[in-house]
Amino acid sequence: MIKISPSILSSDFSNLETEIKKLETAGADMLHIDVMDGHFVDNITIGPTVISSIRKKTNLIFDVHLMISRPDKYIDDFIKSGADILTIHFESQSNIKESLIKIKQKNCLAGLALKPKTDPDVVLEYLNILDLILVMTVEPGFGGQEFMSSMIPKIKRVREYINNFSFNNIDLQVDGGLNNITSKKAISSGANIIVAGSYIFKSNNYKNQIKNLKNLK
């Protein structure tokens, strides 16, 4: 079953509550919330306070993606703010294993994100901890970038690791430049969660766009 996690980075922040309600009605499975600190990536976005405020407005799963240098320092804050899934980057400056274990101990799902240049083999050490692996198909930091087709073999290899080691509980998420064409490539390579931003939010019909993605095979 394909799940869709619209990235609110591409939404209208002046009408965020309205946007979230529209996504609920449109059939979104979760909300992808990108957190950027201006250090790990050049951009700066939102923090726990904003997440806490929108948590009160929806029951959708909060899929929080920490593009920050020291996620270990803020795990408690983001879980308290309402994160259901907390994804940290392998390339961050935290102790990855300790951070993932802490997330799990807080009754939150733990995810690990990989930048395009990161070898997929790094996930092997953490498969017994993870609930989600996120393969970035753009360099993280900004929305609206073009999908990197060179990441297709990487998606396939991560899916092979999940299947071969029988960790079927792990979701494989792909984020970056995803539309109806590139999402099909990602899904056929093994992804089961699609993060889509511009493809959904630049449309006048969120429901149609989400339905299109869910029906891809």
Q: Can you give the helix content as a percent range?
A: 25-40%
Spatial arrangement of strands, main beta sheet: 1-8-7-6-5-4-3-2
CATH superfamily: Aldolase class I
Return the domain count.
1
Helix and strand run? EHEHEHEHEEHEHEHH
Count the strands?
Answer: 8
Give the overall average pLDDT: 96
CATH class: Alpha Beta
> Could you say what the CATH topology is called?
TIM Barrel
Question: How would you explain this protein's 3D organization?
Answer:
The chain has 217 residues and is α/β, with parallel strands linked by helices. It has a single domain (3-214), classed as Aldolase class I (TIM Barrel, Alpha-Beta Barrel). Helix content is 33%, strand content 20%. The protein contains eight helices and eight strands. It has helices at 16-26, 48-55, 75-81, 96-105, 152-164, 180-188, 198-201, 206-214, and strands at residues 3-6, 30-36, 61-67, 85-89, 109-114, 132-136, 171-175, 193-196. An eight-stranded parallel β-sheet has the order 1-8-7-6-5-4-3-2. The longest helix is centred in the C-terminal third of the chain and has 13 residues, at 152-164. It is globular, with a radius of gyration of 16 Å. The mean pLDDT is 96.
Brief sketch in words of this structure:
Helix content is 33%, strand content 20%.
Q: Which keywords apply here?
A:
217 residues; alpha/beta; TIM Barrel; eight-stranded parallel β-sheet; 8 helices; 33% helix; globular
